Amino acid sequence: MPGVEAITARNSAGYDAPIGLTADPVVFTLAGDRLSVLLARRLEEPQRGSFALPGGFVGAEETPAQTAERKLREKTGVGSVHLEQLRTYAEPGRDPLSDLDALEAELGQYEGTFGALLAKPRIVALNKIDVPEARELAELVRPSLEARGLTVFEISAVAHDGLRALTFALAGAVEADRAARPPVEARIVLHPKAVDDTGFTVEPDPEEPDDVE
């Protein structure tokens, strides 16, 4: 519009980020028989040297999907992978409980080879409790989550708080799930034995020339 100055803004790192929105790609892969997620070591403050998702602020001239692809390529060198947006969380005044409701609504739509996803064991991890505001929020919502029958852990990937307990809880959930499954029937393998089998020996035929190499 004539006479109206465009709104411009930069983040703390000096990049154009007019809406303050970030895109954080989560790339899963199998490392041997273990499900793993791709992380990148931070090269700038805050928390320089720590591992984090390879995301960043959405630029002024790109979509969140384009940002996710760009950051994944810049920070990890990985390109040409399938990325699918699960959901955008940007509603003013939202809280972790409403986020959980949205995730469960998404999970409720899927039922495939491994059965209904909502029927699987679930554990809630409230992350970034090294940040005072996040710790306060975690303490606020934890009773509501536990009232739903969910196991809740407050963790910090940066400070390593709560990670050991969460790891043991995940291992215990996997072990309990496997134990609850019906046992797999052993395959029946038949090894027939000939009647009056006295064994045999292999001897060369004296009438045949011994020219086999």
Can you tell me the CATH class of the domain at 9-85? Alpha Beta
Number of helices: 4
Q: Largest beta sheet: what is the strand line-up?
A: 1-6
Tell me the CATH architecture of the domain at 9-85: Alpha-Beta Complex
CATH superfamily of the domain at 9-85: Nucleoside Triphosphate Pyrophosphohydrolase
| Rounded radius of gyration (Å) | 29 Å
Which structural class is indicated by helix and strand composition?
Answer: alpha+beta
**Average pLDDT metric:** 78
Give the overall shape.
elongated
Low-confidence stretches: none
Reported for the largest beta sheet, the result is: 2 strands, antiparallel
Helix percentage: 25-40%
Give the CATH topology of the domain at 9-85.
Nucleoside Triphosphate Pyrophosphohydrolase
Distance between the termini: 92 Å
Explained architecture:
The protein contains 4 helices and 10 strands. With 213 residues, it is an alpha+beta fold. It has a domain at 9-85: Nucleoside Triphosphate Pyrophosphohydrolase (Alpha-Beta Complex). The strands form 5 sheets. A two-stranded antiparallel ribbon has the order 1-6. It has a two-stranded antiparallel ribbon with strand order 2-3. The model has no long low-confidence stretch (mean pLDDT 78).
Short structural summary:
This protein has 213 residues and is of the alpha+beta class. It has helices at 64-76, 96-107, 132-147, 163-180; strands at residues 22-23, 28-31, 34-37, 40-41, 51-52, 56-57, 111-112, 115-116, 123-126, 151-154. The protein is elongated and about 95 Å long.
